[in-house]
Amino acid sequence: MDTRKYISKKKNIIDKALDKYIPLSKVRPNLLHKAMRYSVFPGGKRIRPILAIASFEACGGKDNSILPVASAIELIHSYTLIHDDLPCMDNDDYRRGKLSCHKKFDEWVALLAGDALLTLGFKLLSESGNVNTIRDISEAIGSCGVIGGQVVDIEKTRSKARINKRDLDYITSHKTGFLFEAAVKVGGIFKGASKKKINSLGSFGRHVGFTFQLIDDLIDEDGYVNIYGAGHVKKMARLLTERAKVELKVFGKKAGRLLAIADLIVERKT
Ligand code: GRG
Question: Which of 46, 80, 219 best tests ligand 1's pocket when mutated (most atoms within 8 Å of CB)?
């Protein structure tokens, strides 16, 4: 199957799973469930859960048992976006082409909707019956992971000093790279892959996550583009993708789908 078709098929499967896991708006407290659903649907690219599924399949997984774990990753991602948009953080009025959660509802509702999505994510991870997935994702999104990256980003932005390469590398690897790394790794952890394979998946995910951010910066004309210029950032993204692909040599042909997704990430224009 063509990889774009694969991505669209998996996106539908993930959306159905998310719909099943998030309480309906008619369930009390209605306002909170409405806000949670508002933020998760129709949603964005769902690239992290898709990577988790493709990684699970590269390790021999064939069924839908990875879906709670993949969905948890998307729920956690959604929580970070809601909180990132809050007035005390980035103060963004729009997300994914519509009002951000706190603008549509209220600040306190958005804060709690983010908390509830994060909590639901961990409930799903706990049901996976694999404590290593919980540990890995906790590490990825904690104070030395995504939250750490967010703190340094806000500190630097508010200091008004010109951001240097070292800080930008820290912010990118933490805010974006860690959750990608964890998403790809958990597919292997959940399938019971060897340590060697899990490490390879992690490095692949880290490089792909960094590339994803470089491409985001190219699209937004921001971040790395301000330091290196667009031409150099394009070269960096291509180089990093090649490095990511080398990490998967140990999988042979089974890595095909992950490699194709990496190619689509580096080529993306939106
Ligand atoms: C509040 C703890 C906390 C963290 C916030 C994720 C994040 C950290 C902030 C969002 C802003 C941002 C540009 C982060 C870098 C990661 C990133 C590119 C997020 C957007 O991911 P996409 O493009 O979003 O996958 P969609 O909408 O497709 O799901």
Answer: 80
